[in-house]
Amino acid sequence: MQLKTQLFIDGKWVNGSGKLPVTDPSNESVIAQVETASDELCLAAIDAADRAFKTWSKTPPRVRAEILRKAFEIMVAEADHLAKIISMENGKVLSDAKGEILYAAEFFRWFSEEAVRISGDFRTAPSGDKRILVTHQPIGVSLLITPWNFPAAMATRKIGPALAAGCTVILKPAGETPLTALAIVDILDRAGVPAGVVNLILPTPTGPAIAKILKDPRVLNLSFTGSTEVGKVLLKEAADRVIRCSMELGGNAPFLVLSDANIDDAVSGAMLAKMRNGGAACTAANRFYVAKEVAEEFTSKLTKAMSGLKMAAGLSDGAQLGASVSIKERNKIAELVDASLSAGAKAETGAKIPEGAGAFYPATVLKVKKDNPILQQEVFGPVAPIVVIESDEEAIELANATEYGLIAYVYSGETGRAIRTAEALQAGMVAINRGVISDPAAPFGGFKQSGLGREGGFDGIHEFLETKYIGVDLK
Ligand code: NAD
Ligand code: MN
Q1: Which domain holds residue 361?
Q2: I need a surface site. Which of 141, 233, 367, 380 has the fewest CB within 10 A?
Q3: Model pLDDT, residue 448
Q4: In the prediction, which pLDDT does 74 show?
């Protein structure tokens, strides 16, 4: 398989200062050695992005749009190849990987359409003394940092709006999954992105190198997707220079099944909300609050569906649950489940690391009390803890009892009841009678410690634009 393993700086593939092995977590073998970036190379990326900004920011929106559109088309045409790369380095099953590539490509299409629709405003001031002219201009060099769980979509969800807005970027993908990001940068290069507009670096260790980049006065914007813990470190570092920040952080999504829900629908929705990506999604349903009237039926049907999944290497035939991204991440899942069991949880299925190689963890259903510690943690794996609830009010109160607020799911047979519940939930997104709602055309983001700002939709491009007000005297 053809893989890009060099860094991409100023329109050229270059060797770095060292190498980082990338592993296939389903068999623990090394797939590739990727070049890592020294401080000098990080600086070269800033130089290139800063130089390119002068022309890219003035490039007609239509031209920027056409390049993004072209990148969308190449990505769709090469979806099978890209999906294999994701599966190999991330461990997720091929159908999830293919779904991610198509979703990821849509961000290029959506933002190619947004590039030519950046709106402004021209008004008479209420006092009549002047005209109020409001316009938007690109912020400048943007640092994009992405996680390993959606190595393609988290990159395109940032690169798409950045390029549409007229910003230039330095992408720092996760060390676990750089191959997908490298393949996407190669597509952007082939789509005609000019030198310096998109740069890819992979410094190791990450923290000190990124801290240095954020000190450079030419870097004006930071878009991060990853854990809340790292997000807080970056917000503190960005504070020194008051850099614009957009943060897509962790989640702890509640999944509410109200007493009038259609249980078969709720179970299919739960399987999607829980098991897409093997549970390694910031949007993954992490806690199930199920009305006492339907709890037994829901639990037994969900257990049946979960225990029927075929767990195997992502690329193997018929695999429905792949490996976690690494043994370390898999062991974190196991520790959370073990602690939950020690605190009184009862396992309906799964809950045990299988024999053999690979970072596998089985689909697990737990019956837990509402104070079980697993409910306060982002599990990031195929684990469904179920809590029986007495009323809608209790479900809402428990759902909101977390510092996170990314997404929540509600199943109910009555629209009014579902919307009332959705309005009471502290989450940036609420799915009603659906297991997946992510859409490039909708604003994605969280309340509370799940983040700042929104990606996608009409909001996404504004993370890369400054608002400028020009007051005009017409006398
Ligand atoms: P992570 O926070 O460990 O790492 C994310 C990125 O930050 C990686 O590229 C990593 O190399 C980099 N990084 C780590 N330490 C850093 C530092 N000190 N300075 C600068 N960069 C640093 O997250 P992860 O383990 O890759 O991904 C899982 C997390 O991401 C979960 O918490 C998940 O909920 C979250 N996530 C959120 C969203 C969202 O949109 N809200 C989407 C996907 C994943
Ligand atoms: Mn991590």
Answers
A1: 253-439
A2: 233
A3: 98
A4: 98
Q: In what order do the strands lie in the sheet with 219-225?
A: 12-14, 7-9, 198-200, 169-172, 141-145, 219-225, 244-248, 451-452
pLDDT of residue 399: 98
Q: Is 471 exposed, middle or buried (0-12, 13-18, 19+ CB in 10 A)?
A: exposed
Predicted confidence band of residue 279 (pLDDT cuts 50, 70, 90): very high
The answer, yes or no, to whether residue 1 has pLDDT greater than 90, is no
pTM score, whole prediction: 0.98
Q: Which of 35, 100, 114, 248 is catalytic?
A: 248
Q: Which amino acid is at 182?
A: L
Quick: pLDDT tens for 120-139: 999 999 999 999 999 999 99
Write out residues with Cβ below 6 Å of ligand 1: 145-150, 154, 172, 174-175, 206-207, 210, 225-227, 230, 233-234, 248-251, 282, 378, 406, 446, 451
CATH code of the domain covering residue 138: 3.40.605.10
For ligand 1, pick from 36, 225, 277, 402 the residue to mutate: most ligand atoms within 8 Å of CB. Answer: 225
Whose atoms come closest to the Cα of 380: which ligand? 1
CA of 325 to the centre of ligand 2 (A): 10
If asked whether residues 313 and 364 sit together in one domain, one would say yes
Per-residue confidence (pLDDT) for residue 475, from 0 to 100: 82
From the list 35, 89, 282, 463, the catalytic residue is 282
In the residue annotation, 248 being an active-site residue is answered as: yes
Strand partners, 471: 132
CATH number of residue 398's parent domain = 3.40.309.10
Average pLDDT score, the chain? 98
Tens of pLDDT, residues 358-375 = 999 999 999 999 999 999
* DSSP E strand stretches across 167-298: 169-172, 198-200, 219-225, 244-248, 253-257, 285-291
Closest residue CA from atom 18 of ligand 1: 207
How many domains are contained in the chain? 2
Close Cβ partners of 131 (under 8 Å, ≥ 6 residues apart): 122, 123, 124, 125, 471, 472, 474
Residue with tokens 């829980």: 274
